[in-house]
Amino acid sequence: MSQVFSSGEPFTLESGKVLQGFHLSYTTAGRLNEAKDNVVWIFHALTANSNPIEWWPGLVGPGHFFDPERYFIVCVNMPGSCYGSISALDENAATGKPYYHTFPLFTTRDMIRAYQHLKAALGIDKIKIGIGGSMGGQQLLEWAIEEPSLFEYIIPIATNAFHSAWGIAFNTSQRLCIASDPSWKESHPAAGLEGMKLARSIALLSYRHYDTYQKAQSGVTENTAALPVDEQVFKASTYQQYQGDKLAKRFTAFSYYFLSKAMDTHNVGRNRVSAEEALQRIQAKTLVIGISTDILFPPAEQEFIARHIPGAQVAIIDSLYGHDGFLLEYDNITRLLNNFIQTQPAGITTAALINS
């Protein structure tokens, strides 16, 4: 069930800017039980919405690991996204006009601090399982550090404790594509969409892997195979164009721009002693999952997280899909979750999980 939570209280961002309130779009599935000990909080990635049954159908929904008959499932749309939470298209109370390019930066830490207000409104005191991949995993780590006793289990997937120079370079290149679109200078909802299509093309190169493209996008399209060589069109070319067009139908360049900046600022060690010290604060039983072919969030980043969270385990899944494996490897993730949740608190060995 999709709903909107609104707060009229002043909200101070990490930047020091103060909002006179905010709103969050969120989806729930299932019911909070009497003991209030069946909460699962799912964190979505960059361009997803607050309904994980849509984008994680192999993990969330009736008959799957996160079954609404068993759990009370909560997922919030990130501030800055275009799926219902406060964003650049909303009205700035100070001007009476949409924010557009002046939308303030929500860091991943700001995001979870906003979620704390929703948690209180829902009457949630404890979260049994927190799980999220990529930018969702970044938020999960921030919250598990901010409130060490809140989560019983956390499963950060294909994520990191601080965004790498490599990841920032990819995001910066994508924002340069958006900024190069002449329409980006204009103040209307469709500004920068052509540039965002190019940005998405760059992003896909970091989300997938060499072998992913070799297997699925090799050769020329069937309808041009019989044409002279200078008229043939490659599958990889049409795929890149298709993915850009597809995103432009459901997302805005403003959300893409500001959320990618939020990802760049992610650093659990900011204004704390260090990332290592911050991770050591986490008290939840932790399973960190990585993807062997992930070039954007390589396994070394998940191993770093697990090394510094007390008692954490790490699992690296062999996958053809690169970073997007966290969205597609349902069976492997389900098996790891079953093993991890059922064997705690005794725990399982790292060796039993790696290359599962």
From TrEMBL:
Xref: SUPFAM superfamilies: alpha/beta-Hydrolases
GO BP of this protein: homoserine metabolic process; methionine biosynthetic process
Biochemical pathway: Amino-acid biosynthesis; L-methionine biosynthesis via de novo pathway; O-acetyl-L-homoserine from L-homoserine: step 1/1
Coiled coil: none
InterPro entries named in the record: AB_hydrolase_1 (IPR000073), AB_hydrolase_fold (IPR029058), HAT_MetX-like (IPR008220)
EC number of the protein: 2.3.1.31
Keyword tRNA-binding attributed: no
One example GO MF annotation: homoserine O-acetyltransferase activity
Reaction(s) the record says it catalyses: L-homoserine + acetyl-CoA = O-acetyl-L-homoserine + CoA
Source organism superkingdom: Bacteria
Span of domain AB hydrolase-1: 39-327
Keyword Nucleus: no
Binding site residues for substrate: 200, 324
Family: Belongs to the AB hydrolase superfamily. MetX family.
Function: Transfers an acetyl group from acetyl-CoA to L-homoserine, forming acetyl-L-homoserine.
Protein name: Homoserine O-acetyltransferase
Organism: Filimonas effusa
